[in-house]
Amino acid sequence: MTRWLWLWVTPLIAVSSLRAQDSARSQSPRSRAPNAIFAEVLGNGGLYSLNYDRSLNDAISVRGGYTRWTSVEFGDQPTKHYKFFLLMLNGLLGQTPQRFEIGGGARFGSVAQQDTPSRSAVKVTSTIGYRYQQSDEGWLFRCGLVPEYNVRGYSSRSVSLNLGLSLGRSF
Hints:
The longest helix has 24 residues. This protein has one domain: Porin. Strand 6 and strand 7 form a beta hairpin. It is mainly beta. The chain starts with a helix and ends with a strand.
Protein backbone atom coordinates (compact mmCIF):
# COMPACT_ATOMS: atom_id res chain seq x y z
CA MET A 1 0.00 0.00 0.00
CA THR A 2 2.92 2.33 0.68
CA ARG A 3 4.00 2.02 -2.96
CA TRP A 4 0.51 3.04 -4.14
CA LEU A 5 0.47 6.01 -1.78
CA TRP A 6 3.81 7.23 -3.16
CA LEU A 7 2.45 6.77 -6.68
CA TRP A 8 -0.23 9.39 -5.92
CA VAL A 9 1.79 11.73 -3.68
CA THR A 10 4.78 12.13 -6.04
CA PRO A 11 2.76 13.87 -8.81
CA LEU A 12 1.33 16.29 -6.24
CA ILE A 13 4.81 17.31 -5.14
CA ALA A 14 5.81 17.76 -8.78
CA VAL A 15 2.70 19.88 -9.47
CA SER A 16 3.47 22.04 -6.46
CA SER A 17 7.05 22.69 -7.56
CA LEU A 18 6.00 23.38 -11.16
CA ARG A 19 3.39 25.83 -9.89
CA ALA A 20 6.04 27.63 -7.81
CA GLN A 21 8.22 28.03 -10.93
CA ASP A 22 5.25 29.19 -12.98
CA SER A 23 4.34 31.89 -10.44
CA ALA A 24 7.66 33.63 -11.07
CA ARG A 25 6.59 34.21 -14.69
CA SER A 26 2.96 35.17 -14.17
CA GLN A 27 0.92 36.00 -11.12
CA SER A 28 -2.56 34.47 -11.04
CA PRO A 29 -5.14 36.03 -8.72
CA ARG A 30 -5.17 34.72 -5.15
CA SER A 31 -8.37 32.89 -4.34
CA ARG A 32 -10.72 35.06 -2.31
CA ALA A 33 -13.16 32.16 -2.08
CA PRO A 34 -10.99 29.33 -0.73
CA ASN A 35 -13.89 27.09 0.36
CA ALA A 36 -16.15 24.99 -1.83
CA ILE A 37 -18.98 22.54 -1.32
CA PHE A 38 -20.14 20.28 -4.12
CA ALA A 39 -21.98 17.11 -5.04
CA GLU A 40 -20.19 14.55 -7.18
CA VAL A 41 -21.62 11.71 -9.26
CA LEU A 42 -19.61 8.57 -10.16
CA GLY A 43 -16.39 10.09 -8.83
CA ASN A 44 -14.04 9.47 -5.92
CA GLY A 45 -16.91 8.79 -3.52
CA GLY A 46 -18.42 6.02 -5.65
CA LEU A 47 -22.03 6.37 -6.76
CA TYR A 48 -22.32 9.92 -5.35
CA SER A 49 -20.72 12.02 -2.62
CA LEU A 50 -21.08 15.34 -0.80
CA ASN A 51 -17.75 17.17 -0.46
CA TYR A 52 -15.97 20.11 1.15
CA ASP A 53 -12.81 21.46 -0.50
CA ARG A 54 -10.39 23.99 1.03
CA SER A 55 -7.68 25.73 -1.02
CA LEU A 56 -4.45 25.87 0.98
CA ASN A 57 -2.86 28.12 -1.63
CA ASP A 58 -3.26 28.73 -5.36
CA ALA A 59 -1.82 25.30 -6.25
CA ILE A 60 -3.03 22.87 -3.53
CA SER A 61 -6.38 21.99 -1.99
CA VAL A 62 -7.58 19.46 0.58
CA ARG A 63 -10.89 17.66 0.18
CA GLY A 64 -13.13 15.70 2.50
CA GLY A 65 -16.32 13.90 1.54
CA TYR A 66 -19.06 11.55 2.66
CA THR A 67 -21.27 9.04 0.88
CA ARG A 68 -23.83 6.43 1.82
CA TRP A 69 -25.89 4.27 -0.50
CA THR A 70 -27.51 0.84 -0.87
CA SER A 71 -27.14 -1.38 -3.91
CA VAL A 72 -30.06 -3.31 -5.34
CA GLU A 73 -30.18 -7.09 -5.44
CA PHE A 74 -29.12 -8.23 -8.89
CA GLY A 75 -29.02 -11.91 -9.86
CA ASP A 76 -26.99 -13.74 -7.23
CA GLN A 77 -25.51 -10.47 -5.87
CA PRO A 78 -27.05 -9.61 -2.48
CA THR A 79 -28.08 -6.13 -1.40
CA LYS A 80 -25.12 -4.20 0.07
CA HIS A 81 -25.00 -1.09 2.24
CA TYR A 82 -22.04 1.27 1.71
CA LYS A 83 -20.84 4.10 3.96
CA PHE A 84 -17.59 5.91 3.13
CA PHE A 85 -15.50 8.93 4.00
CA LEU A 86 -13.13 10.49 1.51
CA LEU A 87 -9.88 12.38 2.12
CA MET A 88 -7.81 13.78 -0.77
CA LEU A 89 -5.01 16.18 -1.62
CA ASN A 90 -5.29 17.96 -5.01
CA GLY A 91 -2.82 19.88 -7.13
CA LEU A 92 -4.11 22.63 -9.46
CA LEU A 93 -2.35 23.88 -12.60
CA GLY A 94 -3.28 26.75 -14.90
CA GLN A 95 -4.92 30.11 -14.51
CA THR A 96 -8.14 30.72 -12.61
CA PRO A 97 -10.95 29.95 -13.44
CA GLN A 98 -9.99 27.03 -15.74
CA ARG A 99 -7.61 24.61 -14.08
CA PHE A 100 -6.11 21.16 -14.57
CA GLU A 101 -6.61 19.09 -11.40
CA ILE A 102 -4.61 16.07 -10.29
CA GLY A 103 -5.18 14.54 -6.89
CA GLY A 104 -4.86 11.46 -4.75
CA GLY A 105 -6.21 10.09 -1.52
CA ALA A 106 -8.30 7.35 0.07
CA ARG A 107 -11.93 6.34 0.39
CA PHE A 108 -12.47 4.39 3.60
CA GLY A 109 -15.53 3.08 5.42
CA SER A 110 -17.68 -0.02 5.59
CA VAL A 111 -19.63 -2.43 3.41
CA ALA A 112 -22.42 -4.53 4.91
CA GLN A 113 -24.61 -7.28 3.50
CA GLN A 114 -27.94 -8.33 4.88
CA ASP A 115 -27.53 -10.79 7.80
CA THR A 116 -23.74 -10.37 7.95
CA PRO A 117 -21.59 -7.97 9.96
CA SER A 118 -20.10 -4.99 8.17
CA ARG A 119 -16.48 -5.12 7.06
CA SER A 120 -14.07 -2.26 6.59
CA ALA A 121 -13.17 -1.26 3.05
CA VAL A 122 -10.42 0.98 1.63
CA LYS A 123 -9.71 2.24 -1.87
CA VAL A 124 -6.82 4.37 -3.08
CA THR A 125 -8.44 6.93 -5.35
CA SER A 126 -7.24 9.71 -7.61
CA THR A 127 -8.48 12.43 -9.96
CA ILE A 128 -7.14 13.62 -13.30
CA GLY A 129 -9.41 16.27 -14.78
CA TYR A 130 -10.75 19.74 -15.43
CA ARG A 131 -11.89 22.20 -12.76
CA TYR A 132 -13.76 25.47 -13.30
CA GLN A 133 -13.72 27.65 -10.19
CA GLN A 134 -13.66 31.45 -10.13
CA SER A 135 -11.34 33.22 -7.68
CA ASP A 136 -14.40 34.97 -6.18
CA GLU A 137 -17.60 33.33 -4.98
CA GLY A 138 -19.42 31.43 -7.68
CA TRP A 139 -20.15 28.11 -9.31
CA LEU A 140 -17.75 25.20 -9.26
CA PHE A 141 -17.72 22.53 -11.98
CA ARG A 142 -15.41 19.51 -12.13
CA CYS A 143 -15.13 16.54 -14.46
CA GLY A 144 -12.41 13.99 -14.84
CA LEU A 145 -11.12 10.46 -14.82
CA VAL A 146 -11.07 8.66 -11.49
CA PRO A 147 -8.65 5.70 -11.34
CA GLU A 148 -9.05 3.61 -8.17
CA TYR A 149 -7.39 0.60 -6.59
CA ASN A 150 -9.16 -1.76 -4.15
CA VAL A 151 -6.98 -2.22 -1.08
CA ARG A 152 -9.25 -3.97 1.44
CA GLY A 153 -12.86 -5.09 1.88
CA TYR A 154 -13.70 -5.85 -1.76
CA SER A 155 -13.92 -9.19 -3.53
CA SER A 156 -10.65 -8.63 -5.39
CA ARG A 157 -7.70 -6.25 -5.57
CA SER A 158 -8.40 -4.58 -8.86
CA VAL A 159 -8.07 -1.26 -10.64
CA SER A 160 -11.15 0.58 -11.90
CA LEU A 161 -11.66 3.74 -13.95
CA ASN A 162 -14.70 6.02 -13.65
CA LEU A 163 -15.74 9.38 -15.06
CA GLY A 164 -16.77 11.76 -12.27
CA LEU A 165 -18.85 14.94 -12.53
CA SER A 166 -19.23 17.60 -9.81
CA LEU A 167 -21.30 20.74 -9.35
CA GLY A 168 -21.23 23.13 -6.39
CA ARG A 169 -20.41 26.59 -5.03
CA SER A 170 -17.22 28.26 -3.88
CA PHE A 171 -17.29 30.83 -1.06
